[in-house]
Known about the structure:
elongated
Amino acid sequence: MTDCVEILYDILPLRKYLCAFTTPVLYHVLIFVDEAKNKEFENV
């Protein structure tokens, strides 16, 4: 997970240039990560 977060932080400075594209992408990534966490908790 740490690598994923670091990649997102690397992308964040570009948002002011690609805001229209990255905002929905990051939104879907966050939903995907959240669902993945929920599945992990269910499996435990």
